[in-house]
Write a structure and sequence with these properties.
mainly alpha, Ferritin, two-stranded antiparallel sheet, 2 strands, 67% helix, globular, binds benzoyl coenzyme A
């Protein structure tokens, strides 16, 4: 778990030698990447394990709402695209779990934490996907919000996390476009299709704004994560950017954002927007979202159903190892 004697000593005694800490901070300040074998403060390592594993869990749980629509996609083309997108999310989780393992975390422990409800995952995936338009809204808004958050993470201070983000962002960008294209088709279709698109936007808008996390003055982790350059922008900065980019996209396809207080502010060069319902957000964080229970049940069932695959893969690897040794 610990790659150098100094790391081990520092972790065991909780004493972080001042010169190591100073060197670490200087490297972060110089925008150098911190790599797995480098010394790092315990709290930095723990913060990364928390954020990266929760990010991985979000990708895994995020496969569920869209997975529900693979068999019901309205055409073969839509089905093939959705299948590829959901597979991409599984891949993102794998890169992120692997990157988290470089910090000394065991994958089984991370997965246990998800299944026992100890670890969080994004609140957004505790909302149901009621119509096909929700698949458009998820791609456009949820993946759109994810990109807004993840593009800066390509320059996060921990090397393996930053590099995982490069590939993830390329794929998320395709996901966002496929979602917007679904919304464009629906908004330009029959009156009923346009109504579906508007209804999906109405239901997904506010939960998408919540994805960026609590407001800055109520975000316990932000200040330290910004200092360590784990986070490169604050929750509120990213939320504002998302609103500014997304509102014109809604207007371009004739949909309206469900916020009576939304107004362009000429002086700021940004939109003013209404208050997010933070009570709803905290309830979802506590696992009380509309379909939170179903999501965790589906996740645990998938894990149990997949036991034979993991057993077979382990047996196969052992056989290969034994053959090579012989
Ligand atoms: N949901 O101090 P804060 C995807 C928690 S997947 C749940 O601001 P931080 C996709 C937070 O964890 C996208 N919990 O925290 C997949 C903290 O509690 P803990 C997922 C939330 O970490 C499939 C507490 O609230 N993206 O796009 O500085 C299909 C206080 O918050 C949420 C990532 O994970 C939330 N929304 O900032 C389609 C990005 N927000 O952990 C799409 C990586 C906050 O102390 N993560 N909490 O117990 C991050 O950038 C940061 O962790 C956050 C939160 C901005 C999310």
């Amino acid at each position: 778990m610990y790659t150098t004697e100094l790391q081990k000593q520092a972790a065991v005694t909780s004493v972080e030698p001042a010169e190591l800490l100073a060197a670490f901070e200087a490297r972060v300040a110089a925008d150098e990447f911190i790599e797995p074998k480098d010394w790092m403060p315990e709290a930095y390592r723990r913060t990364l394990i928390r954020q990266m594993s929760q990010h991985a869990h979000s990708e895994v749980v995020g496969m569920l709402p869209e997975g529900n629509w693979i068999t019901r996609a309205p055409s073969l083309r839509r089905k093939a695209v959705l299948l590829a997108k959901v597979q991409d999310e599984g891949g993102h989780a794998l890169y992120l779990y692997s990157a988290t393992e470089t910090l000394g975390a065991a994958r089984d422990d991370l997965i246990d934490a998800l299944h026992s409800g100890k670890a969080k995952y994004s609140t957004i995936f505790n909302y149901p996907t009621l119509t096909w338009a929700d698949i458009g809204a998820i791609g456009w808004l949820v993946d759109g919000a994810a990109i807004m958050n993840q593009v800066p993470l390509q320059r996060t201070s921990y090397g393996p996390y930053a590099r995982a983000m490069v590939r993830i962002c390329k794929e998320e960008s395709f996901h966002q476009r496929q979602g917007y294209e679904i919304m464009m088709a629906l908004a330009g279709g029959t009156a009923e299709q346009k109504r579906m698109a508007q209804d999906a936007l109405n239901r997904w808008w506010w939960p998408s704004l919540m994805m960026f996390g609590p407001p800055d003055d109520n975000s316990p982790n932000s200040a330290q994560s910004m200092r360590w350059r784990i986070k490169r922008d604050t929750n509120d900065q990213l939320r504002q950017k998302f609103v500014d980019i997304t509102v014109p996209q809604a207007e371009a396809i004739g949909l309206s954002v469900p916020d009576p207080d939304l107004k362009w502010n000429e002086a700021r060069g940004q939109y003013d927007f209404g208050a997010v319902d933070w009570e709803e957000f905290y309830a979802a964080v506590r696992g009380e979202g509309p379909v939170a229970r179903e999501r965790m049940q589906a996740r645990r069932k998938a894990w149990d159903d997949g036991a034979w695959v993991r057993d077979a893969a382990t047996a196969h690897a052992e056989k290969q190892r034994a053959r090579q040794a012989a």
